Amino acid sequence: MAASDFRLLIEEEENGKFAVVLRRSDGTEERLPAATPAADLIAATEIDYTDYRRGIKRLWDEHPLFEERIDVSVSDFYDLVCKIRSLPSMLREIDPVSFYFLEESLPKSCLEEDDGSASFLLYAGANLLHILEKPIRVQTLLRNIFEMTFDKMEHATQGERLEKLRRVYPDIAEACNPARLNDIPEGGRSFMVFSLLDLRLLELTLYFQQDRQRIARCEYCWGYFIPKTKKLTLYCDRVTDGYRCKDRGSRFSRNRKKEQDEALLICDQMRDRMYERFLRYQDAAPSERGGLLPMDHDQYNAWSENARLVCCR
Ligand SMILES: [Zn+2]
After folding, report:
1. How many Å lie between the centroid of ligand 1 and the Cα of residue 41?
2. In sequence order, what are the residues at sequence separation of 6 or more whose Cβ sits closer than 8 angstroms to the Cβ of residue 136?
3. Ligand 1 center–CA 217 separation, angstroms
4. Pairing state between β 243-244 and 239-240
């Protein structure tokens, strides 16, 4: 199959903002609105892939190509390819970078190297689905990095956040070490990256290089946000059920008793454990999931939301 033509140009603009430029293989170019690394990273953790993910899961679970049988038909394979090609458009509005990645990475012709065997068709079909899953996998890793780096770290410095990340993911922390950029003078910089993950790692590096903005986690809704001042900020401005977290959160912490603090601690520990379970399940091959407690994205999100409501009442 053809190698991916995917590449992204990241250009520095003013006020700490960077613009992502998509250069398509057909010669056209699109410049996305500039954002700070912190803002773009938070936005990337919040992209809602629910429908897209279900579309992929349906193909794994229900498409006849993956049914257990002796013969694998070429027409089933082509049918799968048609269905796969219809999925990226779901991301066009909500995630233009991944839409571009899929446009450039899904092979234009899928049977160039067909050796005619059933295993080739199965392998090629599974490979295409893995490409489709890439944006979701990168988001999961990014969310995990966020959990490790920004949860309860509002008191910390940028260096301490990077250090905490290093304890869990030394390789990723090394890839995000701002010292790597020391030789490149700031202002008017441009970078080229060749994968979705590299884009996020570059943004993390640029994020750790500055301290004008920091990423905090709201203690009420568990969402990430950028505090507007240097002052310690525990709650965000999001509105949930008619109230801003900021308004509800301060009342919530004022009235909080010792038992509630203990409940919150247990809730945090459980969340970490559930998150680990979810990651283990997600990273295991289907054949290795037998001994694991099932926990997919939807189940984890539902659990997390319920826990938040119970703990933060
Ligand atoms: Zn909040």
Report:
1. 17
2. 49, 52, 53, 56, 297
3. 8
4. antiparallel
The pairing of beta strand 29-31 with beta strand 224-225: unpaired
Q: What is the model's pTM?
A: 0.83
- pLDDT tens-digit map of 226-258: 999 999 999 999 997 788 998 887 666 655 566
Query: Which of these, 36, 27, 20, 32, lies nearest to 5 by C-alpha position?
Result: 27
Q: Alpha-carbon distance 206 to 209, whole Å?
A: 5
**Beta-carbon count within 10 A of 247 CB:** 13
Give 104-161 pLDDT, tens digit per residue. Answer: 888 765 555 556 677 888 889 999 999 999 999 999 999 999 988 999 899 999 999 9
Distance in Å, CA 215 to ligand 1 centroid? 13
CA atoms within 13 A on the CB side of 5: 13
Residues ≥6 apart with Cβ < 8 Å to 295: 274, 277, 278, 281, 282, 303
Span from the CA of 225 to the centroid of ligand 1 (angstroms): 8
